[in-house]
Amino acid sequence: MNFPFYIAKRYLFSKKSHNAVNIISIVAICGVSVATMATVCSLSVLNGFRGLMEEMFSAFDPELRITSVEGKTFNPEALVGEIRALPDVELIAESLEDNVMVNYRGRQGLAILKGVSDDFISIADFASTLIDGDTVLKDGVNNFTLLGIGIARNIGVNTGSVYPMEINAPRRGAGVNLSNPLSSINREYVYIGGVFSVKQAVYDENYMLVPIRLARNLFDCEKEVSALEIKLKTGASLKEMQAKIQRISGNACYVKDRYRQQEDTYKMVNIEKWATFLILTFILLIAAFNIVGSLSMLIVDKQADVITLRSLGADNRMISGVFLFEGCMISTFGAVLGIVAGLLLCLGQQHFGWLRLGTGDHFSVAAYPVIVFPSDLLFILLTVLTVGFFAVLYPVRYLARKWLA
Hints:
elongated; 2 domains
């Protein structure tokens, strides 16, 4: 066994001649463990919120979405056949969206109208978000719309109402006729087929779904689409299929997975996560300096032992190594205890939901969501050990020169 390590282990667990040294060592370990535990819990909660957003977005966003690099729309005829022929593509749907004004019995509002083809409901698992009505967008005679719950609330619509909703959009490429402004507007009517909620304001407060043929009539688009939305077969490789479809689409189109479709949101969550990690690392650095106090007291306490070690042939480098190992062991024990405590708290939160978000319908989950990533635990452990090592390296050398000379 390494001699300095052996002596350091004995010093860590043995009773010191001064009780204050024991207390300071315990405080140092507790400081490191509490900071480590806080880091584990904080990162796990942010992971939980990211996972929650992924679940919410997956109900509206397809696995892959193709959009134009330039302009709001593009003609998909050259792509649909090739993409549909790929063996791992299960469904492909067309969508066309733009801003409209809606009018329901004198109550008006703005919305983002999204016209979708028949396969869209299956591609996005949209039925799971419906809270009233059904997913039928058209029958033999009438067109229907599925409204976000925010729009439905703002204009006071009821599913199954006998009154149609009026939708207005400016004509494509037409100027405003001041003598007859209504001639510059396209108008369509739909009945309320259902209300959905994905618990994300960007969708619930703004979006309404209609048949794509109605959207094309409103926006004067014969064959253009805003996007092609793709569902892959079970077991298909997302990255591989994304690369294949990108090669088919060329440089004229983006092929985005769910992360890139909500890129700004995920970037924000990641920035919050690592900003929190840096703040907690700074707190950990402050806690690590408790180790310096413990080591300084230990060096003073073990002066007689230092003389004995020198008599046995130990030089200053070996004796300094004893106290360096002592500091690293305090960091290691604090890190392990903190990670274990953090894991226990996270598991308790997952199963019992101790910390609640609040009451009412404003929250999609009742308790703080928690997801623990093994990679985060490993990164936290390495960070604590690195911070602990560099926090004691210089102080040990300084104290050794002062007290061990």
